[in-house]
Amino acid sequence: xxxxxxxxxxxxxxxxxxxxxxxxxxxxxxxxxxxxxxxxxxxxxxxxxxxxxxxxxxxxxxxxxxxxxxxxxxxxxxxxxxxxxxxxxxxxxxxxxxxxxxxxxxxxxxxxxxxxxxxxxxxxxxxxxxxxxxxxxxxxxxxxxxxxxxxxxxxxxxxxxxxxxxxxxxxxxxxxxxxxxxxxxxxxxx
Length: 190
Ligand code: SF4
Known about the structure:
Number of strands: 6
Bound molecules: iron/sulfur cluster
Distance between the termini: 27 Å
Largest sheet: 6 strands, mixed
Structural class: alpha/beta
Shape: globular
Strand order of the largest sheet: 1-3-2-4-6-5
CATH architecture: 3-Layer(aba) Sandwich
Oligomer: single chain
Number of domains: 1
């Protein structure tokens, strides 16, 4: 039987399983609706998230809220977590051993929430969930089926803040997410 989010959080505790515990301020577990149909998986906490103990609370979070509206969603509807629960210093890329050590907890969160759709934000989350080496440019904007989940890889909203060319693509993908939600609902009604 799947654990509850509270049980998973308690098991994670004040985690010291990898070296990121030495430089983080807080463990950023994840936040949102424990019965969300749509779960977003990002890369790792940034500076603001590390201080605020919540994913997507900085400028990228504000932009994510705008994008969610395109899919007919609000923050309260979804659950958001990251591949890594502690901030890598200087927002460095997650290292393979960090991903291996931290992601059993993310897997437990997915099992607990049982979303219909996983939206993976950026390269690391997309490659981890889809078990692929393909780049995000290749993966994004296409729906993949993994077990019981529909997986939609998209650019990380933070990347679009630095590269405006990604904004129309992200907006396209959130409209696609809206259609995907409708399709999954129709399938459930059959
Ligand atoms: S990144 Fe994950 S495994 Fe490493 S210390 Fe933080 S919670 Fe633990």
